[in-house]
Amino acid sequence: MSELKTLILGRKNVDDPDDTGGMPNDLMTVNMGPSHPAMHGTIRIELTIDGERVVEADINPGYLHRGFEKESEAATYTQVFPYTDRLNYVSPMINNVGWAMAVEKLMGIDELPPRLQYIRVMVSEISRITDHLTCVGASAMELGAFAPFLFLVKVREWLYELLEELSGARLTHSYVRVGGVAKDLSPKFCAKITDILDRMEPVLDEAKGLLNSNKIFYDRMAGVGSFTEDDAIAYGLSGPCLRACGVDYDVRKDFPYLNYGDLEFDVPVGTSGDCLDRYLVRLEEMRQSSLILRQCIAQIPEGPVMVDDPRCVMPEKGETYNTIEGMIRHFKHIVDGIRVEPGEAYTFVEGGNGELGFFIVADGTGRPWKAYCRAPSFSNLQTVTKTISGRLISDIVPIFGMINMIGGECDK
Amino acid sequence: MGLEITTTKLEDLANWGRKFSFFTYPFITACCGMEFMSVAAPKYDIARFGAEFPRFSPRQSDLMMVVGTITEKQAPALKRVYDQLAEPKYVIAFGVCASTGGFYQNYSVVPGIDQIIPVDVYIPGCPPRPEQVLDGIILLQKKVGEGRTVNQMRARREAMKDKQRQSEGV
Amino acid sequence: MTTTDWIFWVLDSAAVKWVALIMIFVMPVSSLLTWAERRQSAMMQDRLGPNRANIGSIKLWGILHFIADAIKMIFKEDFIPEKAHKGLFILAPILSLAPVFIAFAVIPFGPTIYPHELGSVIPLSNPIEAEHAINLQVFNVEWGLLFYFAILTLANYGSVLAGWASYNKWALLGGLRASSQMMSYEVAMGLSLMGCFLVMGTLEPDAMVQWQTSNPAHWGIVVQPLAFVLFFTSAIAETKRAPFDLPEGEPEIIGYFVEYSGMRWGMFFLAEFIEIVFIAAVIATVFLGGYQVPFLEADGFHFAGTSLAISHGFVVLMQVGALATKILFLCFAQLAIRWTLPRFRPDQLMDLGWKRLLPLALFNLMLTALVMAVL
Amino acid sequence: MSKAVLDALKSKFGDAILETSSKNTDESVTVAVDKLIEVCTFLRDDEKMAFDSPVFLTCIDRLGLPVMEHRFELAVQLRSFTKRHRIRVKVPMEEGKLKVPTLSGLWAGFNWLERETYDMYGVEFEGHPDLRRIYLYDEFKGHPLRKDFPKDLRFPLARREWADE
């Protein structure tokens, strides 16, 4: 009998340093990530668990640190646009707009043509919709509801195709330029976006019906990861997560940029700051974005889509080929980049996840001396350490899903 | 002679099964993950190729899709997951970052995952279009069907060496 | 004994019937279910699903994909972790697969066949004293459903041991979740069947089918509607599929079979699908009249005074077909549930099991007992 | 609006405020290292200031610029939800003495941002509860965003052991 016991219970045949011989009664440390299905992008958590309950969580980001700042310092101001695309790769247009606005602020370009402003608002809002669609869909998928995810991704596909038509790329658009956008809207853009919005709203309703009225989904989200208003402010939370806590703060309303001041929309605000509120805020924001888009389509004026400023506008093709000044200007523009006066500036826009800011230090050449990105995901992610502790392992999934941590942005 | 024919046929049968049953391990790190979602989504539907089961345990998956940039910090994890995959295993470098490091040439980014693990199919693009990904999967199916993936070739080489050693020994 | 007698004698033996059942019905259906699941989920999600596997130009709507899966798994590297307990690691998948196969023995998958009377109509009034009768139930005992519970509990050990023997913390968590889940739901499951037991007065599946008769108004689902809902819910929990797939819990813990590869994992995978078929069979037997076709008696249809005589062979065919249809429908329902609902959290799962299903099952039991006492 | 903040700071701290500027609609104030905590506590707690939320914290390396009074400069952006104003507090630092008192005690949100700045520039935050690398790994030598760090200097952790024959 003793032999049998040794064989089956004791693991004595294995050279095992962890073997203490008895029943373990202490905490267990497990490693989650960096390649784990629930870790959006890539992140690692060292969990100390007591059964299913998380006692302590040590979150390690940085698995997608791609050196945005180092790369930007080596690139001209225009060449940074592709890098900004890959910061928050779910809503690249907003990053584009943010970077362009930061450079424009340094250059002292205050007046943008109205059509340009409308275009920038429209592409930002489309990007915001794709961001929230992905966030809500992916969280639903991780909770086991696969169908809503696919419905939402289907809608995202329509928007990608539209943006592809506009910019030439499905995901990484690099559409915005300093002082304007790469090209005017494609023909029938407004008609197409109206059509997509008309088709999108029923799908949103469908997904809402599948999720909101689902008791399991509701219970998994409600009360999980809640955050108080004061904590949220002290942690520098922003975006939908902050608004879910009950703080009425949206850069588009409080510090209006572009022509957001002229557009009518509401800022949804939650009460308890739990995952359910974050989810509902995101759902409502998609509706508001759709409203903004409809207003833009109705109001968009004709006109130029670049500022008339030789510092940042490339010469016409004919001028480049036929005049020596034009050619030199083109050459300097491409090789040296846009010359920006020395100084520093911080600009922020309302990104998909919150206040997305760019802090640029310019040294007077065509390349930024320092390009710092204030990544909302990074500040938001920081709160997870606090919200996970004391919850179950399963709660990590909705918490992470609703923080919507985007690796590219968080790790830069 | 007869035995050899049988083993070849058996190998063909196995390869036929393998090529229509890719259980993927999505090693998703970055932007390409968004396009990976699109590939799995209704319009492109990777499931048509029998590759829809994402298995998050490396033991049960055959195809590792390295989707996105691999940084130096991530590299040990990638290598470890690759070592944990059960044979036969195939690797797709999804996107230009996984293939070469892309336009990130700096202190933190690995210049291509083939510095760390062998790769069967490279899919270019930043990120690649879903059509390109489907093309890559068809290419891999062809490779697997013909037994020309890195690991299959290596296994064959080793078998040949064994045989040689045996015949020399005799 | 003549040769035909020998054949019938052999056919009537339990082993032959069991093997035939497994080979002709269970294995094909559960294998096809893997394909059906993929196609059905694709249909529900606006997709196409697997359709590319081909031999030459034969594609068969993607059915070949599951054959490809099976072939691949057979040729896949069979991996055992270094620190795993080898014996138990190997035993675990067998332990989770075998009990389900065994439990199928109690399911009556058709009426008694009288081989000599296949062409004739059997009179209802005086049952024939046939020399040979093949009972289409492998294992006919009075405690049939108890046997089913006893055997199926063994499947618990499969998942728990898999989790423990893998020497992996995530697997261990999965194993623990599996055990706690199956323990909790078996209670509600058993109690919900007790109501049926009270009404029908037997635990023998064939007798239960006989009791339900061919009148749908007399079937278990009408007599014990609450028990049906409770049993269905806890049965899905037993199969460890969504929304109760916590032991697998893909995005959280990969599950108790995280270290299994190749065919060993395939066995867990297959066990899951066989369990679906099995649960469907039990529900069909206890609540949906088993092999009973509405208004079909042994001698033909009887409906509102009119009757239509049908020969014994056809009756058997129709009744076996009816059971198969019911099982397939219930499998379909389970797949649809799996692709519709999100996953529970462990504490919610326990809440549902102990605080909702169990009291309801007890209530059902008492109500049934009360009604029985009054009547 | 934020000009009032600058004036208040100047009148309260006097010499400790080395410089103020409000260019490009950004108000910034340069503070000596030893007065940083004092100034920040005032900024947070005073009713008229009420800077309740951190925005970002980073460091500027001016090595190689024509005008370089101090090589490093810490930049801390703060925001007030109630007063709707913002300010950037800057702290000059010398090479070799990259030590700043931590702000994570005043605003919890600076915890990770300080770790990031430590990782990228090697600024040591005294009193930080958990000062270790956040983006990079322990085997990494040096601080990559300093201007004297080569862009493509790698410290690989894993490389394949065998090559294709």
Any overview of this molecule?
Chain A has a three-stranded antiparallel β-sheet. A three-stranded antiparallel β-sheet of chain A has the order 6-7-8. A two-stranded antiparallel ribbon of chain A has the order 4-5. Chain A is mainly alpha-helical and about 400 residues long. Chain C has one domain. Chain C has a three-stranded antiparallel β-sheet. With about 160 residues, chain D is of the alpha/beta class. In chain D, a hairpin with a 2-residue loop joins β1 and β2. Chain D is globular, with a radius of gyration of 18 Å. Classes of the chains: A mainly alpha (about 400), B alpha/beta (about 170), C mainly alpha (about 375), D alpha/beta (about 160). At the A-D interface, α2, α9, β6, β7 and β8 of A face β3 and α3 of D.
Which characteristics define this entry?
heterotetramer, A: 412 residues, Cytochrome-c3 Hydrogenase, chain B, three-stranded antiparallel sheet, B: 170 residues, alpha/beta, Rossmann fold, four-stranded parallel sheet, globular
Describe what is shown at a glance.
The complex is a heterotetramer of chains A (412), B (170), C (375) and D (165). In chain B, 46% of the residues lie in helices and 11% in strands.
The best one-word shape of chain C is globular
Largest interface: A-D, 40 and 37 residues
CATH class of the domain at 3-109 in chain D: Alpha Beta
> Taking all residues together, what is the mean pLDDT of chain D?
84
- In N-to-C order, the SSE pattern of chain C is HHHHHHHHHHEEEHH
Return the string of H and E elements of chain D: HEEHEEEEHE
Label the overall shape of chain D: globular
Biggest sheet strand line-up of chain D: 1-2-5-4-3
Category by helix and strand content of chain D: alpha/beta
Structural class of the secondary structure composition of chain C? mainly alpha
Can you count the beta strands of chain C? 3
Q: Give the domain tally of chain C.
A: 1
- Write out the CATH superfamily name of the domain at 3-109 in chain D: NADH:ubiquinone oxidoreductase Nqo5 subunit
Strand-residue fraction of chain C?
under 5%
- Using the 3D structure, state the CATH architecture of the domain at 3-109 in chain D: 2-Layer Sandwich
Radius of gyration of chain D: 18 Å
What is the CATH fold-level name of the domain at 3-109 in chain D? Beta Polymerase, domain 2
* Average pLDDT figure of chain C: 83
The count of β-strands of chain D is 7
The low-pLDDT segments of chain C are none
Report the biggest beta sheet of chain D as strand number plus sense, adding barrel if it closes: 5 strands, mixed
